[in-house]
Amino acid sequence: MATQNSAQSLDIEVALTKSEKFINKYKKQLIIGFVAIIAIAGAWFGGHKWLTNRENAAQAQLALGNKFYAAAQWDQALNGDSVKSKDAFKGFLKVADEYSFTDAANIARLQAGICYYQKGEYKKAIEQLEKFSPKSDATVSANAIAALGDCYAADKQLDKAVEKFKEAAKKAENPGLSPVYLMKAVGILEDQKKKAEAHEIYVSIQTNYPEFQLCQPNVQDDVVSGAEIEKYIERTK
């Protein structure tokens, strides 16, 4: 089931962008970033010295859910395991509802959204991810915003997807993630025949992220030629 849905989401990305080779190359890294959310959630949110019992209980639940999330067992991650005990994992959906107003509940919303996305249930994914509250960090929150963009794109809400990818790029503001998110946005724009807007973003990528792979000169047999991004800029003039 998980493999089928992952393939479906990959097909959507290919259809939405003319830069599919590049996006596919970095897709694995982005998925790894999403899976890593659980591992860094405690560090991200846990700067408080005195966590309440409620927050501690919710964080403990997230830790229990890690094995299901990391193993791509999306149904168990969403709804909990079958063990009937007070220490059993309740599922990200219940954690989000029962521990509302905690940082852990916020992360549970994010993880639930990604689970639904992997299952191909995009509207449910959108519902969860829209409830996620971005924080001041430039990594997890940026990934969460981009994940919502992926869901909008999969649900054919393309204008919303573009806006979320641009928002994620601004939130991250780093040469590793920002141009990747912008490439997702610009691929949709080109498919929509919005050449002027696509051109503007390509130019901004070249200007602001010169170290980005597509902005680097091509070297083949010791012959240096223009960067790949220049082709995209030229075709959208």
Describe the structure.
This protein is mainly alpha-helical. The chain has helices at residues 2-16, 20-35, 37-45, 53-70, 74-79, 92-98, 103-119, 122-129, 140-154, 158-172, 178-191, 195-208, 228-235, and strands at 218-220, 223-225. A hairpin with a 2-residue loop joins β1 and β2. α4 (53-70) packs parallel to α7 and α7 (103-119) runs parallel beside α9. The radius of gyration is 19 Å and the shape is elongated. Mean pLDDT is 83; it is low at 1-19 and 28-32.
Run of helices and strands: HHHHHHHHHHHHEEH
Shape: elongated
Mean of residue pLDDT values: 83
Instruction: Count the beta strands.
Output: 2
Distance between the ends:
43 Å
Kindly report the spatial arrangement of strands forming the biggest sheet: 1-2
Low-confidence stretches: 1-19, 28-32
* Backbone structural class: mainly alpha
Number of helices: 13
Q: How would a textbook summarize the main sheet?
A: 2 strands, antiparallel
How big is the Rg?
A: 19 Å
Strand content: under 5%
Proportion in helices: 55-70%
Q: How are the elements arranged and paired?
A:
Blueprint: H1 2-16, H2 20-35, H3 37-45, H4 53-70, H5 74-79, H6 92-98, H7 103-119, H8 122-129, H9 140-154, H10 158-172, H11 178-191, H12 195-208, E1 218-220, E2 223-225, H13 228-235
Antiparallel strand pairs: 1-2
Helix pairs in contact: 1-2, 3-7, 4-7, 6-7, 7-8, 7-9, 8-9, 9-10, 10-11, 11-12, 12-13
